[in-house]
Amino acid sequence: MSRIATVVIDMLNPYDHEDGEELAEQVKGRIEPLQKLIEQTCDTDGAELIYVNDNFGDFTATSKDIGEAAMKGNHPELIEPILPPKNTLFVQKVRHSAFYSTSLDHLLREHEIEEVVLAGQVTEQCILYSALDAYVRGFDVRIPSDAVAPIIPELGDAALKMMERNMSAHVAPAAEALD
Fold this sequence. Notes:
By secondary structure, the protein is an alpha/beta fold. It has one domain (4-176): Isochorismatase-like (Rossmann fold, 3-Layer(aba) Sandwich), CATH 3.40.50.850. 39% of the residues lie in helices and 20% in strands. It has helices at 20-28, 31-43, 63-71, 76-79, 104-110, 123-136, 153-166, and strands spanning 4-9, 47-54, 89-93, 115-121, 140-144, 148-149, 170-172. Strands 1, 2, 3, 4, 5, 6 and 7 form a seven-stranded parallel β-sheet that branches. Helix 6 (123-136) runs parallel beside helix 7 (153-166).
């Protein structure tokens, strides 16, 4: 079996932005599958769990700071179940892709990761762009369709189709992501 990493993208979110309420509505039904995926990753030998999160312009923020800010935001009920477990790898990002100007590529290669499971939000933005960047870097891409949240469902569905067709991503439910 190849080495695999579950990358949880932008889930530590205060939902205090323009699309916050619309996004939170979409996230609600995806927390349970995401939570189970996180637990499964932690219980799987050879699998890594990595959180990659926007730092919202605060370059002094730690992973703890970002998590605490999200818990103080508009929807702590969406944050608490998926807070990073202790000693989880964490990478800050500032743009849409989890790879752009971050150490993620280096981290994955240091851990000899060959496949990435990209979960989190936003399907038609950060997940899509991260999938493309993973693909062009030679990683196999998996997308747990019930553990990624769009702002606009139709665009999220289109993004899933694009990832599957154009990036050879394996798109399946979270319960099958590590199979």
